[in-house]
Amino acid sequence: MSKVAVFFAEGFEEIEALTVVDICRRAGVEVDMVSVADKEFETSSHKVTVKMDKNLSGYDFENVDMLVLPGGIPGTPNLEACTPLMKKIEEFYENGKYIAAICAAPSIFGHKGLLKGRNACCYPSYESHLEGAEVSKNPVELDGNVLTSRGMGTAIDFGLAIVEIFCGKEKAEDLAGKIVYR
């Protein structure tokens, strides 16, 4: 079974984070909701509080196949300020493992130079942060081991893209039908 870790920081965008969790779990992909501040609960940018599954301290990355960064302000800068998480993002990238980000969070990949020569997308006002990328207006971009998406309105596309990576296109299309998506 594939495993995805979604990282939560104070001020995350709840739709972007929880849609990924929901869609992946429906498809049978194991998901951990991980607090980067080692808190039992994290609160979103719109004051929705969510109970975490795990904390970053002592988190076992051994069997994780993808790291997911939701957007949100101040969630995105709070994720980027988390040095241990940023080291893991770079490690996953360098080892060809999947990294994913939506909305403002792909800017983190741009700041780290992980988008050079790749197709990528993000929230429109953050496009200048996708340093070295070919910026797309598509809802989702998968280029090698880097998945990016544009924002809350593309969260279902983003979640289904993750399902397609780990479960195949047919499973993603079947799930889209079951949730009455398009």
How would you describe this protein?
- The strands form 3 sheets. A 7-stranded mixed sheet has the order 5-2-1-6-7-11-10. Strands 3-4 form a two-stranded antiparallel sheet. It has a two-stranded parallel sheet with strand order 8-9.
- It is 34% helix and 23% strand.
- It contains 6 helices and 11 strands.
- The protein starts with a strand and ends with a helix.
- The chain has helices spanning 14-27, 75-80, 83-94, 106-111, 155-167, 169-178, and strands at residues 3-8, 30-35, 41-43, 49-51, 54-55, 66-69, 98-102, 119-120, 134-135, 140-143, 146-149.
- The model has no long low-confidence stretch (mean pLDDT 98).
- It has one domain (3-177): Class I glutamine amidotransferase (GATase) domain (Rossmann fold, 3-Layer(aba) Sandwich), CATH 3.40.50.880.
Descriptive keywords:
Rossmann fold, 7-stranded mixed β-sheet, 182 residues, alpha/beta
Which strand order spans the largest sheet, edge to edge or round the barrel? Answer: 5-2-1-6-7-11-10
Straight-line N-to-C gap = 27 Å
CATH class: Alpha Beta
Low-confidence stretches: none
Mean pLDDT: 98
Indicate the proportion of strand residues: 15-25%
Query: What is the CATH architecture assignment?
Result: 3-Layer(aba) Sandwich
The CATH homologous superfamily is called: Class I glutamine amidotransferase (GATase) domain
Structural class: alpha/beta
| Portion in helices | 25-40%
> Please, how many helices?
6
Largest pleated sheet: 7 strands, mixed
What is the total tally of β strands?
11
* Shape label: globular
* Count of distinct structural domains: 1
